[in-house]
């Protein structure tokens, strides 16, 4: 069973840690009691091992009593294993005397009301003094989150799945009281691969109180509180490309350009006629088969995304135009489908409530013009804003007069937030194909942006494509998401999170390394302008991407991107410009070169192997990002000389050197999703052929 394998790995790791760790630096600290007891209700099981070993043998939804007992036993095991690593004498059971004993109690109390809301279900309270600690919750998942929060309060951190970081001393006898609940109900990452995450990765996320990770399946994931999240653009295409469907019902498809548009089985497609009741009914019936017995049978949240780009891919029939804009039509479709899902759940056809997740992406960023109120059942629908066009030069809501991209986003968000009856969430783009080898963390602005979004983040907060092995600076982003998405007593903010992160990982060098992080983050705050929508990259590669020839004006455009400052940038294929203030490419190259030089020099002076290793993980990112910026710097010169008809062969070897490095460096292709982060290498090679 997966759990037994996972438990074995944990035991092996704990033994290794106990042997390799200096016992004088990790202990119970002054005033540590001679004996610690942990107790919680694990009935009907007699022992912790009996409970935890039964995880794969029960029906997690039907046998809730055993499921709660297993989760409670697992929480108790987590407390015991972590404190034992600090050489504390701890065991399961109730204390028999008060002589130098410390007691930890884990209890959940099911509320009298029939239905508990999701925020209460995940919440917990912790009260401790010098003789005991009580963790209480309204559900066993709240109890588990409270357990991890308690360990975190003691000074334990989990920055990577395979590493547990301890403070010098664990002080149990702390007087502390807190009640905490999630500000964002779902927190984590968007993944679209079909390979389930490992138990170790899921446990790392749960320890950080994250609960959303794509294809997290099985009872182990359920025990840790995960919601399985899937779907995407392919869902609609799969349903409406069914053989013979277009011939039978051509009016179910988009009327665009004077004809009905059949949906192919792959590639770009026009959307179905979202405004038709029959279209929603057909789609819902097809999806219910998959949600009950098919490939989506274990999913809790399903993304249903239309084809959406800067092209017009929506129905323009008289019916569609009478309903409103693209978002009006799409929201009507979503409401009809969500109603079908909800009725199936209430009738027992679906064994769980499934949340349909809609999207704002390109054309669908525009709020509905006729729909000001919707009647979605609670938890049946969530509308997600994918922030694919934001600039990173400042917090999302700041300096909007010089950040047109962010101004458009915030204006649209304001219009959407006025709509009644819809739950919202956001998905950010720290890591997708355009940002390969660029370690965007947004740690300087994360809290300000998160707080400014307010209720827009209530339902869900996630980012695209977490990394497999070396998150680099995004380790700090993971900490910010895991902690700032919870409402606590006020002791947690971006400054305290960052201070602890740098102290834990870099010790006496924390101030210097934090300064490197800041400079690095500043240097790449123009990542959108360099690599993503309407970027320098788009202009340099427009011949390869779209067959568009360069013109003399492209030299001026290249200079705009290299110089930076406040610039009016032409938007390709649209008769408009985009006003943005950003850091110029040349300045970024200089800053990144300086970071690589100074961080390498500092690492050479560090004796502590653990700190040196942590720094080296970051240095790989510093070097890769420098290479990515240097590559586009050389290509800018290459293209400019080519337009002018001057010799540019001397740049080919420089370009090739950076390509070769990026082709082999580990961080170029290190995502858990199968997103293609090597495409830019292919394009660069093609450019210099």
TrEMBL record:
Point out the signal peptide segment.
1-20
Keywords (alphabetical) are: Hydrolase, Signal
Q: Where are the transmembrane segments?
A: none
Q: InterPro entries given for it? A: Hex-like_dom2 (IPR029018)
The GO molecular function terms of this record are: hydrolase activity
Please list the GO biological process terms of this entry: carbohydrate metabolic process
Q: Does the keyword Hydrolase apply?
A: yes
Protein name as annotated: Alpha glucuronidase N-terminal domain-containing protein
- Look up and give the organism this protein is from: Shewanella colwelliana
* Lineage start: Bacteria, Pseudomonadati, Pseudomonadota, Gammaproteobacteria, Alteromonadales
